[in-house]
Amino acid sequence: MRTDPAPMPHEAQITTAPQAIAAARVRLLLATVPVSAVTNASVALIAMALLHGGAPAGFYAVWGGVMIGLQAIRLLVWLIWRGASAENLRPVQRSLRLRVLRAASLATGMSWGAIPAALFPATPIEQSFVAFFLAGVSGAAVAGLAFDAWASGLFVVSVIMPLALRLMGVQTSLSTAMAAMVCIYLLYLGVAIRRGQLQFLQLLDWRTRAETARARTARQAQLNALLAEANQRGTSAPNAAALYAAICRTYAALDGQAPLSIVQRDPITGGFEIAAQSGSNSGPVPMDVLDTSLLDTAWGQNRPQFQGDGRTLDACIPLHAQGQVCALLRVVCANAAERLPCEMDDSLRDWLLNLAASVDRGLQAISQRERIDRLQNLYRALISEGEVVLQSRSAEEMLQRTCDTLATDTQFHAAWLARPDDSGAFRVLARAGEGALQLDHFRVHLNDANRVPLVLRVWDTQTLQVCNDLLRDPDMQPWNSTLSRYRWHAALATPVWRGGALWGVLVFTSPQAQAFDEQTIALCEQVAALLGYGLDELDVKERLSHLQRVEAHRARHDTLTGLPNRYALEQYLPEVIARARRQGSLFAVGMIDLDGFKLINDTWGHSAGDRVLRELTRRLQAVQRQTDFLVRLGGDEFVVVMEDLNPLEVQTGYANSVQRLRQAVAAPFDIAPNVQLPIDMSIGISAYPLDAQDADTLMRLADKAMYAAKPKNRTSENSP
User: What are the φ/ψ torsions at residue 516 (nearest 5 degrees)?
Assistant: First the structure.
């Protein structure tokens, strides 16, 4: 038996799906069962009461029992099936139920047809009653079952045909007339069944179209709400991942939609991975069952790709960040016909494009906010760099603090500075941030044939170098695993100038590709410039400090001999007095003068005198103790301050100290080539606190003692 009747001429205008028509028929046939069963059972009882005398005893009772039993079975089937929706049944189940219900209608009709076939009364009046009675039953069946041509047609034929044949078999004028009328009535019922069938299909089609229109309207309202949500999320999402997740969560709340996912490409493997996805009635779609050829096409051509025939749906639309494809919006439904409404129609394509545009706007807003945050952090780092330059006391401290500042609370993952040593090998002088420890194994040389590393490019060109996508740069392929491990996705290297020459290379790395735009590059250059200024400032300070040390040494030391001078002695003596007073110790001041030095100058010249003074200085330094302080006052006058003297030395009149000093002039001095002269010296000593307790008095007493010693020296010199 066929599930549905052959299409009628006007059914070509019906757009309702055959499965939907079959489900409606099952639902309506099942709904008519209670009324039909009760009505047929009640009418059967009436027929038994009116016709029981026109047939052998018990025949109508048997017929009535069969009829009532059949209706009970129909009611039992109704009780079993009434809980299940015909729309949710599988096509096989739906077809089986439709056939069972039609068979029940046929069985009921055949039961009524048994009256004219086997229980037809003999009298014309009862025959007329039976004909009228069965005609009414047939008309009622047509009225109740007109929506299903097979159920109503089988019932009418099984009732009217036996009646017409039996009336023709009676062969009376009345029965013949009645048979003709029954045949005409059968034709009328056939026409009524046909009209009822067309009306049912038209009404069902109108209802289906109305429901579809309502569903489309509701879907469009939901989709518009999702677009508004996407726009709102774009203004509030902290990052792209949060935006993707929010879009998919909102989309998942829409019933009957094809699953949506947002797919990203792995920068290392080049494969695709799901960044976020919505749920669906059948669960998420795993990546391993998706056709990635469409993904490759959409990503490579940067164009939306659509595939679908009304039953399948496959859409892939590029999403953009900073003008580059960053992800793909993917909508896939393997059996769209069962997911009302997700056919790939123009309205859905337009909506998907609008959704992608909304996500793009959200990504752009996120990028702008992130860019503003990055620039603000970089401005703060620039301000901090100024403080680093001002506060650092050495180049090493300045370099390390610069790297620490750049790798903290900025968009940079790491910062480091390198410069070539005397052998040409680059040495990392300072580093900070994620992956910075790997730089301990940094091996780049000025003579390397491979000029790919950014530090070499900077050194070659003496200009800033940028690579905004290290993982996609074919030149960086050998280092991809390391770059990926530490998320160094973009890098900038800029020269650092010191003293007007290229001194080093400062490198910035970022975990985000395309991180270095025009403003970021300018700020990085300013950081490098500030660092260079700071190094120059340190150099200036170092030169000034050196000059100060030189001038301080020159002011306190004799230029000829290198010994401390009178100024140094004036500063030193108060310290010695304070120390001796504090420790309760004593010290002595010895005044030394060369005898006959003026004669050397006058006879051999000042150069000869200078040689004598330098040689005397060397000899005095050789014999002085570690605690002695030797000073040249000027000319041929020297002073020695002797600390930590013991009382025995004082009691012996400083004999040991004088003898040690006189050793300096024991040997003759070279006056000129092949000319040596003996020189003697006079020594006068004063002691603290025995002779005086202030510097001026000690100096005056020592000088007086020295001049007092000179006549003795001259006397001893003139004696035979």
Answer: -105, 95
Distance CA 495, CA 507 (A): 9
| Exposure letters 547-562 (e unless 16+ CB within 10 A, then b) | eeeeeeeeebbbeebe
State which of 225-239, 336-350, 594-608, 646-660 shows the largest mean pLDDT: 594-608
- Give the integer Cα–Cα distance in Å for 44 and 41: 5
Query: Which parts of 421-456 are beta strand (E)?
Result: 426-433
- The reply to whether 237-369 and 566-718 are identical in fold is no
CA pair distance 290, 287, nearest whole angstrom: 5
Q: How far apart are CA 178 and CA 164, in angstroms?
A: 8
| pLDDT above 70: residue 378 | no
Query: What is the H or E stretch that residue 293 is in?
Result: helix 292-301
Length of the chain: 720
Confidence class for position 401, pLDDT limits 50, 70, 90 = confident
Kindly report the average pLDDT of the chain as a whole number: 79
* Cβ-based burial of 61 (10 A; exposed 0-12, middle 13-18, buried ≥19): exposed
Tell how strand 313-321 and strand 324-333 pair up. antiparallel
pLDDT digits (tens, 9 = 90+) for 601-621: 888 888 888 999 999 999 999
Q: Residue 232 has what pLDDT?
A: 75
- Tell me which CATH homologous superfamily contains domain 566-718: Reverse transcriptase/Diguanylate cyclase domain (3.30.70.270)
**Which CATH class name applies to 392-543?**
alpha beta
How is residue 403 written in tokens?
């790297």
Indicate the DSSP class of residue 147.
T
**Order of strands, edge to edge, in the sheet holding 587-595?**
629-634, 637-642, 587-595, 680-688
Question: Taking the domains of the chain in order of start, what are their residue ranges?
Answer: 9-211, 237-369, 392-543, 566-718
Distance CA 673, CA 681 (A): 23
Return the structure tokens found at 245. 């997740």
Write a three-state SS string for 153-179. Answer: HHHHHHHHHHHHHHHHHHCCHHHHHHH
CATH number 3.30.450.40 given to 237-369 = yes
CA distances (Å), origin 399, targets 473, 496, 631: 29, 11, 44
Residue 388, classed as helix, strand or coil, is helix
Cα torsion 580, 583, 586, 591: sign: negative
pLDDT at 345: 62
